[in-house]
Amino acid sequence: MSDPTPTVSIVTGAGSGIGKAIAQRLAKHGPVVLAGRRQAPLQEVASGLGDEGKDWLVVPTDISKGEDRTRLIDQTLAAFGRIDVLVNNAAIGTCGELGTLGEPDIEQLIDINLTAPILLTRLALQHLQKTSGCVVSIGSRAAIDPFPGLGTYGCTKAGLEAMARAIRNEYPQIRAYTVHPGAVETEMLRSIVSAEDLPGDQVLVPDDIAVAVESFVLGERPEPSGAAVVVAKN
Prior knowledge:
With 234 residues, this protein is of the alpha/beta class. The chain has one domain: 3-Layer(aba) Sandwich (Rossmann fold), CATH 3.40.50.720. It contains 7 helices and 7 strands; from the N terminus they run E-H-E-H-E-H-E-H-E-H-E-H-H-E. Strands 3-2-1-4-5-6-7 form a 7-stranded parallel β-sheet, with helices on both faces. Helix 1 packs across helix 7, helix 3 packs parallel to helix 4 and helix 4 packs parallel to helix 5.
């Protein structure tokens, strides 16, 4: 968005990792609303973004809860009057083969990684239409070629790509994209794979993903709305 009006961005899972890096990048272009389950990490991220009430807003949010999703949208509008960007980043990474992963784990993966972003996006649509806004969802390379044990996780991330295409077809005023990262140096990655098995020099850093998100928000990439891109280590 090259328009001089500051963009108002909501970033879920903004307290660490990829979400933190995205929030830091988007804060250069306008106010950022930091959403996540834990207030302390959100406040820590916010402390580096500027003056409260002008440049950022912390909204503790469990995106799997309807009342939290509604409060996130309402508080954003109350503080800044508009929504230009929604980044669906919050997710969990429970592992297990399709035949052995327990039903509660499968249901939780779908609830947090797919259902919640769809419902949050649904709440934001009318406001994004007014601003000709942008939705960027953080998927995973597992959506395309899931490593053993990441099949269900990959299914949830593939659903985000389908949502972007649905937005493209149903709400042409809104630009929508999916960014599929390869392995990224985050707490989630290290809860799944040790540094011994996957050394740090073989993985991305969170800012690699944030750069891609920022370029979509600014309209600097050639891909059309609905596109999905893989960001992988060269």
